[in-house]
Amino acid sequence: MAMKQTRRGFALLIAVIFMSVMLAFGLALGSLAYKQQVLASTAIQSQYAFYAADAGLECALYADQQQGLFAYTSDMSAPAPSLVCDGASAISASVLSHTGSQWVIFNRLSLDTNKRCVDVTVYKRKNTGTNYLFSQGYDVSCATVAAPNGAHFVSRGLSADY
């Protein structure tokens, strides 16, 4: 009779161990799935920001090379040329600096019906034949970029020397 008493609860112990292993396995898979979802979401946001930067760069290149919009001027009080991209005018256009050798112009544009934003900075050099463009795209609207209030967003930048 003493042998029977030592075996009592053995099945319960095996069941608890088995359930613990299954719970740990399930939690590990859940954690992995969550991390994959976050990674995929970040990749999508990065892609939106990259394409916004690419669109801004292409618009600025076209405006400068085909339309002559950013041609260097020696008039130090000249207003900043306003870039038009995808049928929309720049939200803001300003001259960051204007010297005897370089003109730096900044334009902020809203793309994709106000869902994305891009900042384009044009560096026009006098008489050197080389220019520099930098386009910074965001995966959020320009209103969010201007006043983030703790919002998280992704930005990607592209540049061109020509």
Tell me what you see in this structure.
Helices cover 41% and strands 28% of the residues. The chain contains three helices and seven strands; from the N terminus they run ααββββββαβ. It has helices at 2-6, 10-65, 142-146, and strands at 84-85, 88-89, 92-98, 102-111, 116-125, 131-138, 155-161.
Describe the structure using short key phrases.
162 residues; rod-shaped; 3 helices; alpha+beta
Question: How big is the Rg?
Answer: 29 Å
**Helix content class:** 40-55%
What low-confidence regions span 5 or more consecutive residues with pLDDT below 50? none
Spatial sequence of strands, sheet with the most strands: 3-4-5-6-7
The sequence of SSEs as H and E is HHEEEEEEHE
> How many helices in DSSP terms?
3
Beta-strand content estimate: 25-35%
End-to-end C-alpha gap: 95 Å
Structural class: alpha+beta
